[in-house]
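Quick one - inputs below.
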Amino acid sequence: MSSTVLSHDAAHHDAHGHHHETFLTKYIFSQDHKMIAKQFLITGIIMAVFAMILSLLFRIQLAWPDKDFPILEVFLGKWAEGGRIKPDFFLSLVTIHGTMMVFFVLTAGLSGTFSNLLIPYQIGARDMASPLMNMLSYWFFFIACVIMIASFFIESGPASPGWTIYPPLSAVPTAISGSGLGMTMWLASMTLFIISQVLGGVNYISTVLNMRTKGMDLWKMPLTIWSFFLTAIVGLLSFPVLVSAVVLLIFDRSAGTSFYLSDLVVQGQILPNEGGSPILFQHLFWFLGHPEVYIVVMPALGLTSEVISTNSRKPIFGYHAMVYSLVGITVLSFIVWGHHMFVTGMNPFLGGVFMITTLIIAVPSAVKSFNYMATLWRGNIRFTPAMMFAIGMVSFFISGGLTGLFLGNAALDINLHDTYFVVAHFHLVMGSASIFGMLCGVYHWYPKMFGRMMNEKLGYFHFWLTFIGAYLVFFPMHFMGIDGVPRRYYSFTEFAFMEKWVSVNILVTWAAIIAGVGQLAFLVNFFGSIFRGKKATQNPWNSNTLEWTTPVEHIHGNWPGEIPTVYRWPYDYSKPGHNEDFIPQTVPFSQTMSSNMPHDFEGNEEAIRIQEQWNKENNRVEG
Amino acid sequence: MNLKINNGFKSIAGLLLLISLFFAAPVMAMQNDSTVVDTSEVATTASAEATVDSAAASTDTTVATVAADATSTTTTAAAKVEEVKQIDPQVYKNFFYYLLLFLVICSIIAVIGKIHSVYVLTRKMNGKHNELGNNNLQASLFLVFLIAFLAFVYYSYDVWGSWSWRDAVTEHGKDIDRMFIITLVITTVVLVLTHIVLFVFTYIYRSKAKSKAYYYPHNDAIERLWTIVPAIVLTVLVLFGFFTWRSITNVPEDLQKSAIQIEVLGEQFAWHVRYPGVDGQIGKRNYKMTTATNPYGIDFNDKASWDDLQTQDIVIPVNKSVRFHIISKDIIHSFYIPDFRVQINAVPGMTNYFQFTPTVTTEEMRDKMNDPNYDFIMLCNKICGQGHYNMGKKVIVVTEAEYKEWLAQQGKYFTEDLQKEFASNNAVSEGLTTASVN
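Output:
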């Protein structure tokens, strides 16, 4: 069925292929998936830099709590009077850093970019199912970003109750200054962002299901597509729940309802709200919030699978197991949210159940890590910058994932909940791992996006600075957490037992500053190479997937003629008997008689017979 | 390609240098009249500007490096100038010096990069270039990283681990600690082994001339193995964790009643403690009865509240089961005592409980820690506003006798003023008792 749709689409395309494009329709309100991908990526990078600067600001405060930095006053004005960041503003920095990184960078910047770029390319489609929705998805995201940044320019400051915006802190403006207009803007921004995600998600799912080229059955899709597809499903099912949480919070804030509020005496003022429960918000929030971390990490896993396989010149080990573990993560991700709430007063028995589901999710994650290592085994590894980041991603995924065994365990979580241990855990497993997955994708698909190569040397420099920097920043935090240092503390000087950690904070902050400044190597490389990079060849990495069969110059509709037909899975690297170490998906088995294997034919007896006859004629013994 | 990037990079760097100097110059001129130090300052920078200017135009950046280095040394001398205005011009100046320093570092890196490309080009021309040279280098770097990483992990366990680890001083805390150590051993072994495998594989199987990868798409047996083994390990951890968790949170009813009851109320940004008094019962609280004189919102219509005690610190007897009732007056806080392995959120509108038995007195702990000022501390562990980082309360564990003695000295919430107020307002507050009660 899909093939008929596509051939119709191709004819359709030819008839309308030459409509006039202005600057506005080509670069701004573009409906082309490649341009939208670039828009997502560049916006994502800008947000990442912004959020990173915020993190450097609060790192400075944590490392030198007793020192003035008058230059901060120049930039921040009253929020850093006398060169010292105020506690209120510190919380704003933490909040907006988290929100931007999780939603704008690692959700929109990562899956927005690569789903848009790779789904049509790798499944062999001319564009997304609905290019208009795709464009709207970007513009809703863009407006969300603008509103979030704009909240830095209002009198009462940006939202500051943490990225989890737990009410009543986020609902009662008198509790903290950021819960005034800043919080309203946060909520508006997030609502728009969710619209963007839903528009995008519907599009990704329908494109993957309906628009695959001839021969591209589900089990021939690259793991990238599997991960984007499952990510979109997770997003589509969980983001609307956040909408309900956000909308009810807006009602509580603006219409005087009491969904989340009850029994409050804030700043001596008895509030009239009765009957609500703050725990309700937490359930709704984490029903999205936990799947969200898989929305963040699954695309990164998909991208690294592809990059590791390509650069090891070896098929990904256990393709089916990789897909099933992604499916397992997808399903389980919906029934583990309660592990964020072990100590909120949720029924302890329920907590025990959530603990069981949470630790089960470690199994598919472990399978994925082992399969990555098995893919490297006896490979012929090419260390492109993308490959470096992919290996770094695996390292972070393991080292951060392991600490999940502590936090997923309700009994251990009593002492670790909301401490720096949690900060260390999620910054490694979803922060660093996903950022590395994203960067690995950028380095690998840059030639496809911009038709030019990035500078390799700067790429290596960037990798080593970031890799070492990230470990130096996040690894020591585990120990602060074990000691019982709570997160979101403005300074460690108020309690005697924390003071010893100020020295470690100085190390962490210096590592963060150096790694942060090191990102300039990436920015220079990224933006410089758009104009000055070496011209890319069509298939620079000798890769099998369909996107490398398109011309280097972007054209509307991706392929100049017919969309190629797919004959094989995407991981035929170093197949014995073939003269090259890769066989693109578009090469039919009839052209690779010397390397075909019996199970390639999936039980097609005629094909097996032909192959056996050929083997006999050519004295080939299958091994 | 390298040449192009480097040239572009350098011209951008040179341009930025120039722009930053234009910004810096007026500030320096301002300083010119005020201090003597600054005159020499401007002179140096002016000359630096000239050299930088020419350096940016020519390809030789080393001159700029030297000149800018000279300027940065003068910064330290100038830094002693006292602050005059609200934002001292020196602040801007320092900022631009750091910017310059950064650009100098960038130039150095660019120069090194360029020298390397020239070297590679020469090797290529001489036919000595090893195409796999860089590949081998990166593979070796991963191996070096592995060693450094393992050393770092060892160092951090050894040093920071000993900083952070204190044995639990409660009965249930010992169970938690045992499980923590078991999990720690398992995860550390996995962490070390997987990283050794990961980076050793990347090194051994780096691309070599004429080598070809081994086509090995799957092996069901081994995949089954590494699905089942983690599953078994996790099942053990889950069962162990589940029963520990139940034993901590599921306290039998008679033990709940026989324990010492203490109520702790969190508000922005302080904790309040309420002991039940002689009747052993904590009186009712109704947030609607909160007034300036009764900030806790105690409902004095409930006679059980009349003997409730107000205390400064949380004092508990050793080896006695204590049941804490955790409530909040305004927003969510969290009642967290790291040494006790105790944490539960304080949520407005509902009461949470945590029951535990301390096993070590503060005095004993001080001896053990060899720190005469050591105190157990209860912290707020849920973001609650600007004073979040400073919202703690001392927890003192004493002997039974000391506890009784201390308790006898504590004052009541129902002070004489409140008694008078209560007597006169009795009729009014009568109507409120029907409202929701905490």
